[in-house]
Amino acid sequence: MEATIAPEHDEHATTTGLDHRKMLMWAFLGSDCMFFGSLIATYLIYRGQSLRGPFPYEVFDIPYTSVSAFVLLMSSLTMVLALGAIQRGDERRLRIWLIATAVLGSVFLGGQVYEFTLFVSEGVTLKTNLFGTTFFVLTGFHGAHVTVGVFMLLTLVGASYAGKVKQHQSINVELVGLYWHFVDIVWIVIFTVVYLVEAPAIEAAKAAVGH
Amino acid sequence: MATGTQSGGILARPTSIDGVWGWITTVDAKRIGMMYITTSILFFLWGGIQALIVRTQLSHPGAEFVSPDTYNSMFTMHALTMIFLAIMPMSVGFFNLVVPLQIGARDVAFPRMNALSYWVYLFGGILLSMGWLVGEAASAGWFAYAPLTESAYAANRGMDFYVLGLLVLGTSSMAGAFNFIVTIINLRAPGMSFFKLPVFVWMTFLTSILLVTAFPVITVALIELMFDRYLGANFFIASQGGDPLLWQHLFWVFGHPEVYILILPAMGIVSEVLPTFARKPLFGYSVIIFSGIVIGVMGWMVWSHHMFTVGLGTVAVGVFTVTTMLIAVPTGVKVFSWMATLWKGSIALTTANLYSIGFIALFVIGGLSGVSHAMSSSDFQQHETYYVIAHIHYVLFGGSIMALFSGLYYWYPKFTGRMMDERYGKVQFWMLFAGMNICFGPMHWVGMDGMPRRIYTYASNMGWDFWNMISTIGAFILGFSILLLLHNLVRSLKKGEIADGDPWDGRTLEWSIPSPAPHYNFARIPTVTDRDDWWARKYATGDDGITRPVPQGGAYGHGEEDVDVHSIHLPDPSYWPLVTAIGMALMGGGFAFHLAITVVGALIMTVGIYGWAFEPVNEPSDDH
């Protein structure tokens, strides 16, 4: 008598119950913390060490950067709304909120580009001094991360239009969401450590010239 | 099994695992592991040739075998080749071959990313070594201290290949590490809790965590150097207020965890081999695991012991002296546990076991010289001398390489179905052991006698002549023993004694399946109840304390015969990892040649990623 027994069939069973890809994304984000941590450490080590100006307090515009930080923060909200939509099976709202996230992210990037060109015109470049070097590399790599994120969001939008992002596949949106929130959190850290810490110096400089 | 039904054509998903194309598009961890090991052995030979050139130049004072510049490139590239292209990939090769089997899985969590890791390693290794082909190999030492590496002093492309090669290789290492972290957490067989895992799996896990946390730091250092060199940034330019020491800190914050990345897998291998050939469980399993964790954590707290002489100040030097001395403790714990494993064991001196026992002896010697480095006051004399080179080679050659060779002899039967020749192996082992000690032993006293590192020649009245000649002779004995190893590896493929599934009466799950391992690994995923579960299925210790074979032991459940192995689903092969890897390599390499190549590479990589993302793990097919 030949009894063929099929081997165990649940190929998606994982030891912890967590999807592999979600675990991978968390591990990757943990590693990316070390990446940004090293760039931020470099910025902090060199803070105040520039041999010549322009110095941060001369070029930073805190109100302006606060607005762009707020825009990025709101994009995390729209990202959450997008995930909520697809988890309810609402593919149309998924696309609306994903597009909104991508638009807000792009506005942030546009704001960065404007700010950087302004700084360059005011005499701060990669080559000028330590501030220019460390600032542009840190915020530049953050901007690159945001750009990759925008590409991923638009890819999801396209895939959704092609009918490839269904309710039971919401994990794909969740993964992009995790990445997007990480990029946002990194900006909160950069904004605080790089910009806000300079605020007293900016106020002092303004007071010194009688504003 | 992959038997898709799509029509043919170049762009169709590969479905066959046969032939060269089957290997190129493979996503099977066992094949990827064999590709890693083969490639790493080839790079090891290349690194060895570079070492023999170094030793020939140093064999007598005033030699003119190579020019000073070529000599500088030789020792730089020797180190880079051995560390990044030989030891690390050989370890990853074993991760691939052994970890899925030891945890009772069919493959790793991300088979295509696994393939990507291999191809990026191969292309990254070629990129790193590309300097030789254009006559401009990196020559500032493997640790590439600024400002020697800035454009003003290293104008040729050697440093560019260094930076770009390591950036590309870093992604390979990290992708592999992420894969093993998820695999080990998420693909364990039922019943295989963390504290039943074989020690090799634990060491793979810890090494992978170190990889994904340490590599970003050197990535940043390399990016900063790249920006200095290409775009006029000021990260390490003192005249602009930059600090060359920042490079050293960033490099060694990576560099110290890196040496634990180099040794932990080796310690894992030894922890598998010794119990098997002592026919006893590993002594102090929990302590060995915890000490591995402690080493991984403390490895982050010792980096400036590479910088004792740069002027850090007494407090910093004192702190790092203490932390470095402390980290010897968990390592010592492991050594005592291994010795206790052998104690009163029923020891079989197979070649694999000789290598692991040799590892203990030589790694301890390397550890002792390391502890003398920990003492900053003695390090002030030892730094930049041949004493450090002695230390490095005792821990990396007498340590990592010995353990990796032990793994080769131990696991060779599982993946080739044949045994390596034992008589030959023993000759080869003793020749290697002798050559290694003859070459590196004298470096201890030549270094203490003041011979500096990284000098292409030396004067004849320094008193170093005799021992340098001895070292060179030892190096050639060592080199010859490697040729013998190669011969054994290749010859045994066809002429080795046929091996059954369990030639060593092993303890862990990989020995419960036939040799060579079937491509599905296990016909039925086992349910695990014990540490050393395979041993527990074969033997039971009665109330009288005597261990006897279990009747009908050695089988899991019904046995493999009545499982329909054709319905086991394995991931289908794919060419997208190779395409993506080509794109990444071109992106990296383009910076050294022409930016148009970088742009083309980026496009290819993007196409590769999109193709991959939208390709299912398995093609739908008719047979299930």
Uncertain stretches of 5 or more adjacent residues of chain A = 1-7
Oligomer: heterodimer
Radius of gyration of chain A equals 22 Å
User: What is the 3D form of chain B?
Assistant: globular
Amount of beta strand of chain B: under 5%
The top-level CATH class of chain A is Mainly Alpha
Helix % of chain B is 55-70%
Total helical segments of chain B: 17
Task: Describe the protein.
The complex is a heterodimer of chains A (211) and B (624). Chain A has a single domain (20-208), classed as Cytochrome c oxidase, subunit III, four-helix bundle (Four Helix Bundle (Hemerythrin (Met), subunit A), Up-down Bundle). Chain A is mainly alpha-helical. Chain A starts with 19 loop residues before the first helix and ends with a helix. Chain A is built from 7 helices and no strands. In chain A, helix 1 packs parallel to helix 6 (171-195) and helix 4 packs antiparallel against helix 5 (130-161). Chain B has 624 residues and is mainly α. A two-stranded antiparallel sheet of chain B has the order 1-2. Mean pLDDT of chain B is 93; it is low at 1-9. Chains A and B meet through helix 1 and helix 5 of A and helix 5, helix 6 and helix 7 of B.
Summary of the model, kept short:
The complex is a heterodimer of chains A (211) and B (624). With 211 residues, chain A is mostly helical.
What are the defining features of this structure?
heterodimer, A: 211 residues, mainly alpha, Four Helix Bundle (Hemerythrin (Met), subunit A), 0% strand, elongated, B: 624 residues, two-stranded antiparallel sheet
SSE layout and pairing:
The complex is a heterodimer of chains A (211) and B (624).
Chain A: H1 20-46, H2 56-59, H3 62-87, H4 91-121, H5 130-161, H6 171-195, H7 199-208
Helix pairs in contact in A: 1-5, 1-6, 3-4, 3-6, 4-5, 5-6
Chain B: H1 19-24, H2 29-57, H3 68-103, H4 111-133, H5 158-186, H6 199-231, H7 244-278, H8 285-298, H9 314-342, H10 351-374, H11 376-382, H12 386-416, H13 422-448, H14 465-495, H15 533-538, E1 539-541, E2 547-549, H16 576-593, H17 595-613
Antiparallel strand pairs in B: 1-2
Helix pairs in contact in B: 2-3, 2-4, 2-14, 3-4, 3-5, 3-7, 3-12, 4-5, 4-16, 5-6, 5-16, 6-7, 6-8, 7-10, 7-12, 8-9, 9-10, 10-12, 10-13, 12-13, 13-14, 16-17
